[in-house]
Specification:
four-stranded antiparallel sheet, binds adenosine-5'-diphosphate, binds magnesium ion
């Protein structure tokens, strides 16, 4: 069974149809890139997977490990092993990054019927993961994302992913706003967590990120659908030729 199956998904927001019959299959252990012109619906797909409010699914289904997740609340989806990283990470004034991480990890464990991590065990894990990402203790004491640079936000997001150990991580990358170091941080974080037990969907407009995260498969979106699927060479072809053919095709 594939890890994720999106079938004939139609989604509206504010009375506007954005996704129009999107089909997508993600296999266990696969790293899939989703590319496509601006406005093709890439971020909308990520938001719908996360269960964000205001996105109305009018047709189709989303199966995660064979279960329909559209009926689940966002936190239930997360407890099942779905992790979403967004283009614009949320700032949480007054909540230390360390506290936030611990709350998130334990909430998910609780939802799965697992015991909370003890303080020493949590500290051990967070230190190890933070160390690998070059995150110091001072940053862990600061409020979540408040005053963080772009690179720090990216590190923090990858730290969350490393601590939560998701089955599927969806990364919606701005990469236009990311400097090369932040891009490398994201890529190293993903590459370190790559495993036969974990899948990734890396959403990106530009090919650049895929120099560092080499995908198993590339899907191209246009006008709310996946219009083409290929190997990693497809990303290079898009880089060379641009998206013009995809914009024309569906217009
Ligand atoms: N909250 C919203 N309200 C109305 N239209 C939206 C909203 N969010 C996205 N859209 C529209 O949906 C389309 C797809 O957007 P998006 O999913 O962000 O594309 P991408 O991430 O591929 O650039 C765009 O035409 C955008 O204007
Ligand atoms: Mg987007």
């Amino acid at each position: 069974m594939p890890l994720l199956e999106v079938k004939n998904l139609h989604v509206e927001i504010a009375d506007k149809t954005i996704l129009r019959g999107l089909d997508l299959t993600i296999e266990k252990g696969q790293v899939a890139a989703i590319m496509g012109p601006n406005g093709s619906g890439k971020s909308t797909l990520a938001h719908v997977l996360a269960g964000k409010a205001n996105y109305i699914v009018t047709q189709g289904e989303v199966l995660f490990n064979g279960e329909n997740i559209l009926a689940m609340e966002p936190d239930q989806r997360a407890a099942k092993g779905l992790f979403l990283a967004f283009q614009y990470p949320m700032e949480i004034p007054g909540v230390a990054t360390m506290t936030f991480l611990r709350t998130a990890v334990n909430a998910q464990r609780k939802a799965r019927g697992e015991a909370e991590l003890s303080t020493p065990e949590f500290m051990k894990r967070v230190r190890e993961a933070a160390g690998q990402l070059g995150i110091n203790q001072e940053m862990l004491r600061r409020a979540v994302n408040v005053g963080f640079s772009g690179g720090e936000k990216k590190r923090n997001e990858i730290l969350q992913m490393a601590m939560l150990q998701p089955k599927l991580a969806v990364l919606d990358e701005t990469d236009s706003g990311l400097d090369i170091d932040a891009l490398k941080v994201a890529a190293e974080g993903v590459n370190r967590l790559r495993s036969p037990e974990r899948s990734f969907v890396v959403i990106t407009h530009y090919q650049r990120l895929l120099n560092y995260i080499v995908p198993d498969v590339v899907h191209v979106m246009s006008k709310g659908r996946v219009v083409r699927t290929g190997g990693k060479e497809l990303a290079l072809e898009l880089e060379a030729k641009g998206y013009a053919q995809y914009q024309d095709e569906a217009a």
